Amino acid sequence: MGRARLGSVALREGSLAEAHQILVNVTENFHEVQNKNGLAFVVDKMASLYVLTDKPQAAAQLIGWSDATRKEIGDPRPRIEQADLDRDIAAIKAKIGAQAYETAYNAGRGLTLDAAVAFASDGK
User: Are 81 and 103 in contact (CB under 8 A)?
Assistant: First the structure.
């Protein structure tokens, strides 16, 4: 989780290219070992990155996947992380509207683990 937190710090400091590189690497590592708890954390951070890099649809899909995965594994998001995500959700809805957010969010909920990891890595 140390590298994931490092990616989160880079994101917070506005070092978006560095954050992306770290988060993609961590996503791949967590995927290799099938660490869904770690993946849910890092996918949330990738969603935040995509909000900042003007990919609101991708961010909404990743939030949908993370929510579905957290529910599946019984790992609710800590309150402070939920507050950060709530700000991201508000920014997404302001950009694309609530209906488009819901559509993308629901599409994300249906992503397989492999598809979510690939999607998180490139936002496409």
Answer: no
pLDDT digits (tens, 9 = 90+) for 65-85: 999 999 999 999 999 999 999
Query: Going by C-beta distance under 8 Å and a sequence separation of 6 or more, which residues neighbour residue 91?
Result: 51, 56
Please give the CATH topology (third level) of the domain spanning 2-122: 1.25.40
Q: Could you give the 3-state DSSP secondary structure of residue 74?
A: coil
Q: Where are the chain's structural domains?
A: 2-122
CA distance 52 to 66: 18
Q: What are 32-42's pLDDT values in tens digits? A: 999 999 999 99
pLDDT tens for each residue of 8-25: 888 888 888 898 899 999
Half-sphere exposure of 68 (CA within 13 A, CB side): 16
Q: What pTM was estimated for this model as a whole? A: 0.91
CB 19 within 8 A of CB 27: no
The long-range contacts involving 95-103, CB below 8 angstroms and separated by at least 24 positions, are 95/54, 95/56, 96/56, 96/57, 96/60, 100/57, 100/60, 101/56, 101/60
